[in-house]
UniProtKB/TrEMBL annotation:
Xref: Pfam families: zf-C3HC4_2 (PF13923), zf-TRAF (PF02176)
Domain (RING-type): residue spans on this chain: 18-56
Source species of the chain: Polioptila caerulea (Blue-grey gnatcatcher)
Annotated InterPro entries: Znf_RING, Znf_RING/FYVE/PHD, Znf_RING_CS, Znf_TRAF
Residue ranges of every copy of the TRAF-type domain listed in the record: 101-144
Gene3D superfamilies xrefs: Zinc/RING finger domain, C3HC4 (zinc finger)
Keywords associated with the record: Coiled coil, Ligase, Metal-binding, Zinc, Zinc-finger
Domain of life per record: Eukaryota
Keyword Coiled coil attributed: yes
Protein name as it appears in the record: RNF41 ligase
Length: 244
């Protein structure tokens, strides 16, 4: 939809009106046949049609182009009233700068920033409303440190609030202790499994060393027996030699 033509000061050229909504062009696009439309209007039209609403020539979204520069300049120079005119704003500015003005306009209706408050109020009166809003928050005057809503003043009990917070902290601490306990048990189990595995490996290595040592002792005994046999043979040979 375009800008309401009733907001504009002075004459508005027919070529600057949307061919669909007949208001002043907003975010305009132009068809090859040179008819201009608001972007939202022509996109909505082409959902159900495939031609220009003015001369019925075939058009497609891909054929739409930005407005000619001279037409865009003429459009931007148009003067119009702020949309908050009904609330008291008397500002008249160019179409090019109207959005910037309306974002900052003191007469704009904006929501209260307090959670839970549904009031819409003029920007210029917001500070005054926040000072008396029943949903405004402040720190407890009794020193408990809690932030309370004005609507809860009569129900606020410092002792009860602090007791509740203490219980929450206690529950949280218990949960953290349990988590730490489970984590430590998990680590101990992991280390225990690792130690058992290492012990098994070492035991196997010890058994292997014992087996090797047993084989070596057997070899030594065999060598010693062979040496004794060899010595006896030498002695026998020496005796035979002397006899000869």
């Amino acid at each position: 939809m375009g800008y309401d033509i009733e907001r504009f000061v002075g004459y508005v050229n027919e070529g600057l009106l949307c061919s669909i909504c007949r208001d002043v062009l907003e975010d305009p696009l132009q068809a090859p046949c040179e008819h201009a439309f608001c972007t939202a209007c022509i996109h909505g039209w082409l959902v159900h049609h495939s031609n220009c609403p003015e001369d019925r020539q075939l058009i497609d979204v891909s054929l739409l182009r930005p407005l000619y520069r001279y037409m865009k300049n003429d459009l931007n120079r148009l003067q119009l009233h702020c949309r908050n005119r009904e609330y008291g704003c008397e500002m008249v500015c160019s179409l090019e700068s109207i959005d910037r003005h309306e974002r900052e306009c003191e007469y704009s209706q904006i929501p209260c920033s307090n959670a839970g408050c549904s009031v819409q109020i003029e920007r210029r009166n917001l500070d005054g409303h926040l000072a008396v809003c029943e949903f405004r928050s402040r720190e407890c005057p009794n020193g408990c440190g809690y932030t309370i809503l004005s609507a809860e003043d009569t129900q606020h009990n410092c002792v009860a609030e602090l007791r509740t917070e203490l219980e929450l902290l206690r529950s949280e601490m218990i949960c953290r202790v349990e988590e730490a306990k489970h984590e430590m048990e998990s680590r101990l189990d992991s280390q225990r499994r690792h130690m058992v595995q290492k012990e098994s490996i070492l035991q196997n290595e010890i058994e292997e060393l014992k087996s090797q040592m047993s084989r070596m002792m057997s070899d030594v005994r065999s060598l010693m027996a062979a040496e004794r046999q060899h010595r006896q043979e030498l002695e026998q040979a020496e005796l035979e030699k002397r006899e000869l």
